[in-house]
Design a protein that fits this description.
With about 170 residues, the protein is mostly helical. The chain has helices spanning about 10-40, 60-80, 95-110, 120-140, 155-170. It has 2 domains: about 5-40; about 60-170, no CATH class.
């Protein structure tokens, strides 16, 4: 034996197995990338939509889409940043909260839009921290009801139905 790889069949077999495993991993990654590329792009504001949103002016289908999009955004940030004590499920019943959350949503859309850069996340988090203080003040009157500190769901089915009914009544 002179120590070459071909002299050690076990080593060759191990190397081939490792190469095959890496090839399978690469194939899975390529498949996932192809899947992601075939998915529709994340929802972006309609270029025909008047931005920023003026809740006193927007109406019809555009209003319903805006409410649905804002609702999805609010639920996302509440769960992502553990804001269940800062943004209560009744947020949509407080005009000031709707305005603050709409502003934050618009900042998010702009910050993470096509012009996003390395500071985008920092910009959004700075705005979020500023807005959280505003929201805490808005919801002070809603502290009468118990809010579980680790809720399995943020919005009850009854509250979600009421929210959907409100959207339907406005369109």
């Amino acid at each position: 034996m002179n120590g070459s790889v071909t002299d050690e069949p076990e080593t060759v077999s191990e190397l081939l197995a490792a190469v095959r495993a890496q090839q399978e991993t690469v194939q899975r990654l390529v498949h996932l990338l192809e899947q992601r590329q075939s998915e529709p792009p994340p929802e972006r504001p309609d270029p025909q939509q008047r931005w920023p949103i003026d809740w006193d002016v927007i109406s019809g289908a555009a209003r319903a889409v805006a409410w649905q999009s804002l609702g999805a955004f609010v639920e996302k940030i509440v769960l992502r940043y553990n804001l269940q004590f800062d943004v209560l499920p009744c947020w949509w019943q407080h005009r000031n909260a709707v305005m603050v959350l709409t502003s934050l949503w618009e900042v998010h859309l702009h910050t993470f839009g096509e012009d996003a850069n390395l500071l985008s996340n920092n910009t959004f988090l700075d705005n979020l921290n500023y807005r959280i203080e505003q929201l805490r003040g808005i919801f002070m009157s809603c502290r009468e009801e118990h809010t579980d500190s680790t809720p399995r769901t943020w919005m009850s089915d009854a509250t979600r139905r009421a929210f959907q009914q409100m959207i339907a009544s406005e369109t």
